[in-house]
Model the fold of this input.
Amino acid sequence: MNAQDGGGAGAVSRNEISGGAQHAPILQARDFTGPVTITTTPTVTPGPGPAVPTHLQDPRNWPLAANWDALSAGAHRSRPDADGDAVPPYIPRDIDADLRHRLGEAAEAGGLVLLVGDSTAGKTRAAHAAVRDVLPGHRVLDPGGVRDLLAVTGVVARAGVRYLVWLDDLERYLAADGLSPALLAELARLRVPVVATMRVRQYETFLARDHDDRTDTAGRILRMAHPVEVERVWSTAEVRRAEQSADERIEDAVAHHGVHGIAEYLAAGPALLQEWRHASRVGGHPRGGALVSAAVALARTGLGGPYAIELLAGLHDEFLAAAGGYALRPEPLADALAWATRVRHGATSLLVPASEMAYMPFDYLVDHADASVSQQVWEASLAHAADDEERLIIGSRAEREGEYGRAEAAWRPLAEAGHPMAMSLLGSYLGSPIGDDPKEAERFLKGAADAGDVVAMSNYGDLLMRQGRLVEAELIYWRAVDAGFHFAAGKLGFLQLEQGRSEEGEASLRRAVEDPDFTGAIFCYPLARLLEETGRPEEAVEMYLRAYRSGNHGSLSRLRQLPLRPEHLDELTRIYQLMAAGDHALFFDDLRHFLTDLGRPPT
Done:
């Protein structure tokens, strides 16, 4: 830096920077009196990763939760009211108390709060309302896609404000190089709540890839949160609350929703579904309906969108022919596309434009389609897959749909090329009663295990157990455990207990239960039974309650024969009250009688 000064009263000082840019602030003056405060906008250090979008660079510009609107959060539109507002008033849902409790805990200690439900069940709207109520002063980081999420990771650690991460449609962030357990752990360390939503079909597809114990990156993430399930059809209590609304759209939904949920009626889901199903007729829009059918079928295979119009046009003839072909007098392609993309009821369209000449089907249609996916569509899906990860997803979706040949076709080329996850998936399938090829299963599972895939090690151990090769099974389970996959410790515990090695079995089950990253929670119940059977009732009570919190509701029935402390009765009372608030108390009659017998009748 060079400073030049003429020395006189009118002298001018000038700074020059040589050899690059000066990123730090510079102050120049003859004298400074008193404290000096420098306020700067956080900057992002350039790096090899994707650039941080301008709107995400300064956390102080992220929307404040208290002022954040539901449409920006991703809620479905409804028909506008007289003032043009496309979002009706929020009607409290049965899950609100539980959701707000979890959100408050996540705000204190970090963590993932996940809502799962059908399209238009009201997941996003419920999460948005909870965020505004519980965390109104938090800034909202809404990355909008996996690239932006990865780009902004350098910003979040030095944000300087309280904020939450909003991941609507979580599946968009579960790519191989996307959201990771390590990033979630770092956000938890920073006490940052992560709020996510996911359609139940997507949730089940990702979990189906695990074959009950598979824990690839997506599975590990999904198991880091016990999901809040948002029901599509509203309960009696929810409908009663909706009846109190003065909004004419909600009044109309209450009066006419029929077998549908209030939220799906408001989002025009049933109306669009009916229009699509009735399009294939003379005088209707058979070609438009066929274009929509092609997009829906592609989405059901797991192929990520949006889909180019050329792809949809190339596939739609099959659907048009199935509906009646040219006897239906199909409209020109341009007219068909215009019909499919026209906005209905001020809410949405059958095909939603995502970019120029590329479209996604309205997700409600995907969730309610029931026709089988044809061979042509499966083949097109694999041919247009963006990468190996998408091929793995397509294979998993095919397996879930019972299209086992399609699943194998998706996985085998990758497995033969040595892709560890593909070998693991294919080996697990071939080792199942459906695949029924234990020799091939062992080849692929061993290959994946030798490549370091810890889940393949665990599944290889299962295959060896079924073949009675217990010594080999124990060794491979230990390999998985030593590599950090503690879920295999639970399997190892079962093997040890079956051999009468109770102390070793208990130690292994405890190791599985205490692992925070995996599904060790499912071992709480068998560990509680072991504690009960070996004369440790107080420990058993705690483990049964932990099993319940992890989703094993049957564990409550075991508490009848065990000593309960007042705090246990308090928790059981809260459980019953929560179920009653959700209009599900009838399913917990035994719990009500149990509490009444103990002198603690729930109110």
Notes: Confidence is low (pLDDT under 50) at residues 1-27, 37-48, 210-215.
